[in-house]
Amino acid sequence: MTPDSSPGPEEEPSGSPVPDDVWELFLHDNERDIEASAPKELSARARVAARRIREEKERAAARGDRRPGLGERVSRPADGGPVASTTAAARRAARQREKERRNTRRQLLHNLIGILVVFSMVLLALSPGRAWSMITFRGLNGGSHAAAAPAVTLGPETARPAGPPAAVSSRRPTLKRPFAGSPAESWGDGAAAIVPPTASAYFAVSSQRVADGLRLAKDLLVAGSIDPAVVPGAGVARVVALIDPHADDAQARVLGALAHPTAGNDPTTLFSRFGPEVRLVGAVVKVRGRMTVGLGDTYGGARIVADYTFVYPVRKTSDTGNSPEITRTVVRRTLTIELPADIQRPSGLSAVALSGWTGSAVNGGCGFHDGFLHPYFADGRTAPGGPTRGGTLSGPAVDPYDRSGPAPGGDGGCVRAERI
């Protein structure tokens, strides 16, 4: 009888039993230890990061340039290989770019220095004083006198001003700035400041004749008030030649005034001539005024009226110092010129029909009727060598720069100046 090999009800199952120590640990584990040792599920952020790393590896593998992952080492060939060659080429390219940038900066610096040198040479040739001021930083904004810059030149006067010019600084005139402290510092210079209006036909006078009349009116003003040959008291032939001898008796009156000046026929009303005791400071005469064209006295004719103010800075001839006393004489002069109709005088104009003129001088002398201007200085006297017997400044006080009204006159130059 073959014995039954099946295990009895109380026997252990066949096979490898669980070790006793593991079984003992399992029996004694509590719930907390089981939860601590159990595997944990990754958080959402960790899953996103892991997915990005996995996708990046897949894309790199698809491009064939797989980068080393975490924990992997980069193996580099001992001889440098392609990676070392690429790095060296990049360094050489960077050095080349830096060298090119330095060369560009150096070239720009050289060009700037060249421009400054050329500008300095041109400025030194045209205005040595201004160049020296810039070199010494006195001509820049940080200079010692912010108000030392000359005033901006005004444009031509086109209509009668509404009032006198505003007050300016109280700076005293100097050899370099003889018009300092005067409104005339912003006026035009000499003949360039006499700008006739645009010529156009007027009644029976053609535009060409009007243009000729305006040109001759300017020539007459320049010859009698600005010409360096007239201002020091020299020749007056050019002025006389511009006056039509057949129009009234204007030319004869002018010649008579020059030969025998009187209070009623004083040539200083037409000429700005100074006595030999003074001389002009510099070569600039400041000018302000305008010309107008209107209806003339003759049938179909026109009339030109020129109203201008001239400012002359003068010094004593006997004062040869480097800081002389400088004063100014202001003369306002008005000329009236008749233009006949073309049918009355078909030929062109070579002289003007001067029908009238007036002239008043402020600080040109009082009671002197010798045909010359004799300005007073700070002591109330004329310069040494000038006339001493004259009138007194008993007339009204006037502003010689005020062009909003008529010119003062009829008092022999004895008005008092509010400013000069």
TrEMBL record:
Keyword Membrane listed: yes
Q: Which UniProt keywords apply?
A: Membrane, Transmembrane, Transmembrane helix
Can you tell which superkingdom this protein's organism belongs to? Bacteria
Which stretches does UniProt call biased (Basic and acidic residues)?
52-76
List all membrane-crossing ranges: 108-126
Q: List compositional bias (Low complexity) regions by residue number.
A: 1-20
- Segments carrying the region annotation (Disordered) are 1-22, 34-102, 157-182, 383-420
This chain belongs to the protein called: Uncharacterized protein
Source taxonomy: Bacteria, Bacillati, Actinomycetota, Actinomycetes, Kitasatosporales
